[in-house]
Amino acid sequence: MKKRTAKWLTTILLSATMILGLTACNSKSEPTTGETTAESKAEYNLPSNETEAAAVDKANVKEIMNIAVSQEGANYDVHKTTTLVARQLFSGTVWEKLVTLNGNAEVVPELCSSWEMSEDATTFTFNLREGVLFHDGTELKADDVVASMNRWIEAFSTAKDLVGNGRFEKVDDYTVKIVCDSAALTLVDMMAGAAQPAIVTTKSICENEDENGYLKEYIGTGPYKFVEWVQGQYITFEKFDDYVPYYLEGTTEEIMDGWAGYKHAYTKQLKFWYVPEAATRVAGLQTGQYDVILSLDSENSKIVEGSTGLEVASEQAGTIALVFNKSEESIAQDINIRHAVNAVANSDDLMMSAFGDYYDLGSCYMDESNAFWLTDAGSEYYNIKDEAKAKEYLETAGYNGETFKILAPTLNHYDNIALVLKAELEAIGMTVEVETVDWATFTTLREDKTVFDLYITSFASVPVPSLKAYYGPEYPGWTVDDTMAEKLAAFNQSTTKEQAYEAWVALQQYSWEYLPCINAGHYGTGYGYSEAVSGLSFGNGVYFWDAYIPQ
Amino acid sequence: MKKYIIKRILAVIPILLVVSVVIFSLVHLTPGDPAVAILGSDATQEDILALREAMGLNDPIPVQYVNWIVDVFHGDLGNSVVSNAPVASVLKGHFLPTINLAAFAMIISLFVSLPLGMVAARKRGKLTDQIVSVIALCGISVPSFLLGLGLMMLFSVKFRIFPVSGYAPWSAGAIEHIRSLTLPAIALGFMYAALMMRMTRASMLEVLGSDYIKMAKAKGVKEGALIGIHAFKNALVSILTVIGQSIIGALSGAAVVETVFGIPGLGSLIVSSIGRRDYEVIQGIVLLIAFINVFINLITDIAYSFVDPRIRVQ
Questions:
Q1: Class of B88-307 in CATH
Q2: Model pTM score
């Protein structure tokens, strides 16, 4: 009997040793981290983008830089996709635009040397830089720009609505213009920073689409040329030796500012590896298999920060929106129900549940990266956390225990936000149901007016407020309101930036009163990289046109 | 035998037809579609609706099915609705990593499970048997992604022996190829090794208790020959079934391990295709897996007759 007991003890000890061994393997590489605080303001760390060109010894730079990304694009025809990975990898690196954004989110020339806007903001004329070469060796001419820009307008309904029947036309080989139906002040902002970038490729490439209407080849004017995409594995870019760099307006220094400026392409080859698993990306950075990793969340950033020789950069990436169903099928059509939800919603708790430390609070619908549009209009309605007030709103609405349905995708822990909101709403006596589904299912379900009263989604940083989709009557949530439409039209018809800003302040103030959605807060994202890497460009993403690793 | 094999191969056609109807219906009735995957989350509703129309996603489902199945009978699995690449070439590109990974995992499993299973049976009730039982229990209980991450932390991050992720094809060199697959193969193969270990032990125990083994022992047949030849050969029939099922499992169920280790195989392809609702690719993979399933079952059945001539395949 004793012998048998001893055997069982041995067995149990052996099992325990194996399990502990595995656990130790995991925990050993994790650094001790500080406690999570309830502080709502994220402390982002975004290094300066300026590169001292003279300090770089080009002969002693590592030839290949390995970058791990979490997503793989369905395709990289950025005229026709808004996916972040497509924009982040290709825009500015392989492709360039007529205009782009500097570090202050101001529109500055890229492939044009200058542009003019008519006083009524209907006519835009762009003077192209001469001698710019495409990766196929041909020179950038007006025909290429006209074909590319008109293809972008056709693919991007927001731009199409803005310009009406106007399309780009060739004036001469190095000048193009567009005459819009009405004022289109924000057109250049969209061209510079929309999620569907207005990149320029050759006329023949624009005409050589596949049967689904997507580009067959990726030819641009950027400092890197596209070499290969092995689906499920990697994308390779190689330095374009004939790249024609440009200086920031009014300078002759080889520096970058935001997405604009002099790009050096120090590294010969950029290799973007598709690594969907976050822990694998972190482990790859720790072992040196990857030099830079993207999509680093708050939790994993602490592991990276605690590892020797690794750095973390982070920035605000967009806003979280709790979008109401304003159709007749929903109880949220009643503005008092919307205000009840808004009154009780604790933005700190909602944001922390999904983003850990990578969030900050703020009532502005626009993000920090677009400083021009920041305003506190309507802030008196933001994050008030007033249960008594919420109950008053419910009473005014005549709420009688009807089920309030929340729809959330499992993407990026948005389901956590739904669960926290459910608890907060139940605390004021509401009956709440939460449905969490994968992203693809979510995008279909949210089109059904009977499925939800509120859904949770995010919006990446946009250069102009009119790109916020929830103002549209067709966008799920269905904002059909005359005052909202008038205020949006006033914004779109502005002929000066100052006028547009005033219109935006009025629009945001009304948004907080009408509540097409609740702007819960601004979420952040992180990037991990080896301290050996220099010259990374940050700002709405991380870019590699000046990145290098000294050997 | 030839007749039997031809008959079994022809039987694949109705099976695949049924599978095609089921998978087509499931995929198309599930909410979500590829238009959003292509356009991205910030796309306007107007652009999404226009793309749906352009891609023919608004056609009635039976019409879409007939169009697809007619093409399949002509040897055309269609094009990925997302990337527009031919499904056949997409599958080809992802099939080889999965085959290599599954083969490697099976080799590891067999080399570990068969000897340990035989030893455990021979040492029934003793410490060795207990240790093997614990290993088998761990193999069945520990999820493959957890084991994979543990192996990665130990052998990639701490000792830097193997790469963290990625796949090196044979063309990159045999050593690189094996290095890239070692950890995922162990993570994948451990569970199947555990199953085979238990099956080997159980079958061997059954055979070792039979009269002819006692007779052989009495006649003075040596221990090695007794276990390795007389007992194992007779235990092999039930083990073969588990091996066949394990191969099918490794080929079709490697999604998690492939995702963790960044192996561009069929598993990671089906995960990303489901996320994007890439209908044609999902259908292609499921048809391929169904075919592999039938094929491996056929091979297993044929193998039975070689191991035990008493089993008539007809």
A1: mainly alpha
A2: 0.85
